[in-house]
């Protein structure tokens, strides 16, 4: 399940490299192995093609202004040459994107394929190819241009052979010849037709599209209904990897491509006529605005289905069908909406439809090749390429795959726990079960300080009165206790998050109320929203200093639970916003290695953590998020004997969109227990809503992410061969609510078998737990009798009892109820929403790929820690 690593026992502040999970690739790659870099000739060909294409497009656009008179035949051939250039650019774009997927398959530490430069280059090439196709719509017409899309297949096959080192055999040669023949026949048909070159104004286009015919509306309704019903069937029955999934993604992408071209052609035609006639009011006409909005409405689903097809099937299997349906989609829209076949003679129409059939036949030849290679097995394809196309259920069908899928950099036995004292002193481990107990601990620790205080905070109201039952220290605030400590000669260091999105005080305000002897350091990331996203979200940063600890006299440390504000309250005590808060904290003795790391953490540092270089890891039993903490959680889950209890503020795990393996590990352990007939229970507590998030987009995303994670839990279970009934017999996912009022889960703890626990600031998301860019986090591993006591105390709190010893069967019965009694306690079952899973699926992709890193793990990030001196205003936000 895990592999020994020299990183298992690292000294304090050692630079621990990020995840380097590499697939096994032969040291001496074969001729057919994918290249480690793109060939120079290919790069030069792309640059020249882009240059030539842009020059050609400029001539086509500026031709009328330069009074260049070209006859219809020459204009037709100009369109053909333009199609050749655009098809090559599109094929090059697909090739670059496929190369990005191969790089990620070789080394998943690189992140996602969309983060790679080659992927962005591919998007640029596809954009240029699309612009070329749009200009070409005014030359050939939508239906006539449709067959030329198949030229991309020829370029894709050639580039696959000479750039990606994929095989190019008889099938590829035959399909290329057939496609060229089909395109040639269509060109001949276009010459016979003598199609008049028409220009459209907004009024004439409106009359054409709204003519007295049932075909435009009928075609639109049928296309949308087809896509919705087919995609719902695929997603509901988990058929993404099957033939119907290939059909769904390729056909829906192709159909939407037809509508994209239709809307784009309409906008281009109206724009041309408006510019020619200087009719500027056209651009403010509601009908024109609707046509402009129709372009992204069709383009976004098209790109989404294209990306899903490439994710599940790979280029050579998906692109041929995709191109075939682009042909059909463009031809359908051109014939139905623009009535482009009306001027075709009988012979021209026969030749044109014959060319279409010949072109599609060439596509089918490629599909035969794909099926042949799948059945016979293509040993020449490298491991890295196969990994891109390997279905997840194939990985999960074999027991031996669990070891690979949940491999970690160290074993459970190599992890150190807070109860493992290395000296004769007792560890003084204790757990605070609600925020009142946390405040008691804060007051006690600050009052006891004699030498030093090291405090790290994400959010703290230094003027809030701290709760305590000690009459001598009542009515104290953080400010008053720090002032008293400074008077005693205590050296005070504060590591601060100056970003004020969540209500943090400014540095200037703190300087006014805290003694000047206090040492301030600020940790700030360079990852923030773009100029565009700033209009949609009120977040000024996408990554935060999120470590919460209080270290006293280099002897005792309190991990989490030491942030202070009015949202946090004691158990079942409403805060000022009218809901409840659930908080935990752990206090233990510091080891010398832990102290050394804390000292280093408060020192000024440029590039505190950088995505593709190194990240600082504290010594066990401390963990600081990222891949190391994720590995700890996976080890704990996969080694659990009978129970897993996981509480997290948010839950975003599972599926190909997420890097962390927490939810899949829980399902894998349930699958093992089910196969062996062992009693095993897993309880996950999270929030269905995030009322304290300042951004509406963040709150919406968190709601969607819960729905996504629930769906992925079920998908993973089905991949393991479990029924949903089997899954939910062992698993309970819930939220906390008392008398209809939210109890905000902020406890972020993992408890295994009532023996091992991890309390952390990390949330269950890639933004905290992955080998990708993270918030700064801190957690503590602890074990022993205290863990069992804590778990039983928590269960009593949740179920409204005191001092009762619960078994997991009793806990599940209380939560779910039975024939004799209703559910009891504050744990409410968290169920999937009734909306379409396709909607969740689509919106999660939109949020993740358009959020610039807010959803975690997609964009590089650097934290810079700076000691505050006189220049304090640079941190004002």
From TrEMBL:
Record-given protein name: PLD phosphodiesterase domain-containing protein
Matches recorded under Gene3D superfamilies: Endonuclease Chain A
Record-annotated PLD phosphodiesterase domain positions: 541-568, 741-768
Localization per Swiss-Prot or TrEMBL: Membrane
Membrane topology: Multi-pass membrane protein
Organism: Phytophthora oleae
Location, primary (coarse class): membrane
Highest taxon listed in the record's lineage: Eukaryota
Keywords: Membrane, Transmembrane, Transmembrane helix
GO cellular component, one term: membrane
Transmembrane intervals: 41-62, 74-96, 117-140, 146-164, 171-193, 213-231, 243-263, 283-306, 318-338, 344-368
């Amino acid at each position: 399940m895990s592999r020994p690593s020299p990183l298992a026992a690292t000294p304090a502040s050692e630079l621990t490299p990020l995840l380097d999970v590499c697939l096994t690739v032969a040291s001496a790659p074969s001729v057919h192995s994918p290249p480690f870099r793109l060939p120079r000739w290919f790069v030069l060909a792309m640059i020249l093609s882009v240059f030539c294409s842009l020059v050609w497009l400029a001539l086509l656009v500026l031709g009328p202004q330069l009074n260049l008179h070209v006859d219809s035949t020459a204009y037709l051939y100009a369109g053909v040459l333009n199609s050749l250039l655009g098809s090559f650019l599109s094929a090059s774009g697909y090739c670059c994107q496929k190369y990005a997927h191969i790089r990620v398959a070789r080394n998943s530490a690189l992140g996602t394929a969309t983060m790679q430069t080659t992927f962005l280059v591919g998007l640029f090439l596809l954009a240029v190819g699309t612009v070329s196709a749009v200009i070409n719509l005014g030359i050939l017409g939508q239906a006539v241009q449709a067959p030329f899309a198949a030229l991309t297949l020829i370029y894709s096959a050639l580039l696959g052979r000479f750039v990606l080192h994929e095989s190019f055999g008889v099938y590829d040669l035959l399909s290329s010849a057939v496609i060229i023949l089909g395109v040639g026949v269509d060109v001949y048909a276009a010459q016979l037709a003598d199609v008049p070159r028409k220009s459209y104004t907004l009024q004439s286009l409106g009359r054409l599209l709204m003519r007295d015919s049932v075909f435009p509306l009928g075609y639109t309704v049928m296309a949308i209904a087809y896509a919705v019903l087919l995609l719902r069937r695929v997603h509901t029955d988990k058929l993404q990897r099957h033939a119907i999934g290939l059909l769904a993604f390729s056909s829906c992408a192709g159909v939407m491509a037809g509508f994209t071209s239709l809307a784009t052609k309409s906008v281009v035609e109206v724009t041309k006529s408006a510019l020619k006639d200087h009719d500027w009011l056209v651009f403010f006409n509601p009908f024109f605005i609707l046509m402009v909005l129709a372009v992204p409405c069709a383009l976004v689903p098209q790109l989404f289905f294209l990306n899903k097809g490439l994710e599940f099937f790979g280029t050579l299997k998906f692109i041929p069908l995709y191109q075939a349906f682009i042909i059909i989609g463009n031809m359908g829209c051109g014939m139905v909406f623009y009535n482009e076949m009306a001027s075709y003679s009988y012979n021209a129409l026969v030749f044109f439809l014959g060319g279409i059939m010949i072109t599609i036949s060439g596509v089918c030849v490629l599909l035969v090749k794909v099926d042949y290679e799948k059945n016979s097995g293509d040993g020449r394809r490298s491991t890295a390429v196969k990994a891109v196309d390997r279905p997840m259920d194939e990985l999960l069908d074999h027991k031996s795959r669990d070891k690979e899928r949940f491999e970690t950099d160290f074993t459970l036995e190599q992890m150190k726990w807070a109860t493992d004292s290395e000296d004769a002193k007792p560890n003084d481990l204790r757990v605070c079960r609600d925020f009142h107990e946390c405040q008691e601990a804060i007051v006690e620790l600050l009052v006891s300080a004699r030498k030093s205080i090291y405090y790290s905070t994400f959010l703290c109201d230094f003027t809030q009165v701290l709760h305590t039952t000690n009459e001598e220290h009542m009515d104290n605030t953080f400010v008053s206790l720090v002032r008293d400590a400074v008077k005693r000669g205590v050296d005070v260091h504060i590591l601060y998050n100056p970003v004020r999105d969540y209500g943090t005080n400014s540095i200037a305000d703190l300087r006014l109320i805290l003694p000047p002897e206090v040492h301030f350091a600020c940790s700030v990331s360079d990852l923030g929203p773009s100029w565009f996203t700033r209009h949609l979200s009120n977040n000024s940063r996408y990554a935060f200093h999120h470590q919460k600890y209080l270290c006293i006299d280099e002897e005792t440390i309190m991990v989490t639970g030491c942030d202070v504000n009015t949202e946090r309250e004691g158990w079942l005590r409403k805060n000022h916003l009218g809901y409840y808060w659930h908080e935990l904290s752990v206090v233990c003795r510091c080891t010398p290695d832990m102290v050394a790391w804390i000292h280093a953490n408060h020192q000024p540092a440029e590039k505190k953590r950088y995505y593709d270089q190194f990240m600082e890891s504290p010594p066990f039993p401390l963990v600081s998020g990222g891949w190391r903490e994720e590995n700890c959680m996976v080890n704990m889950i996969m080694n659990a004997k009978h129970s897993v209890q996981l509480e997290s503020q948010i839950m975003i795990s599972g599926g190909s969109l997420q890097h962390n393996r927490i939810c899949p590990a829980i399902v894998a352990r349930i699958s093992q227990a089910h196969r062996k007939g062992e009693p095993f229970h897993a309880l996950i507590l999270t929030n269905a809503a995030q009322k304290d998030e300042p951004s509406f987009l963040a709150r919406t995303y968190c709601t969607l992410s819960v729905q996504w994670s629930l769906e992925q839990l079920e998908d993973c279970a089905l991949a393991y061969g479990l029924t949903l009934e089997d899954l939910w017999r062992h698993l309970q996912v819930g939220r906390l609510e008392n008398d209809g009022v939210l109890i905000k889960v902020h406890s972020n703890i993992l408890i295994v078998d009532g023996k091992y626990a991890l309390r952390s600031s990390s949330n269950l998301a890639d933004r905290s737990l992955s080998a990708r860019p993270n918030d700064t986090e801190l957690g503590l591993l602890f074990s022993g009798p205290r863990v069992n006591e804590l778990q039983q105390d928590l269960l009593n709190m949740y179920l409204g009892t005191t001092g009762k010893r619960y078994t997991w069967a009793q806990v599940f019965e209380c939560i779910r109820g039975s024939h004799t009694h209703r559910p009891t306690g504050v744990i409410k079952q968290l169920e999937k929403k009734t909306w379409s899973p396709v909607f969740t699926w689509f919106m999660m992709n939109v949020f993740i790929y358009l959020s610039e890193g807010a959803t975690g793990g997609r964009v590089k990030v650097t934290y810079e820690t700076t000691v505050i001196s006189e220049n304090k205003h640079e941190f004002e936000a």
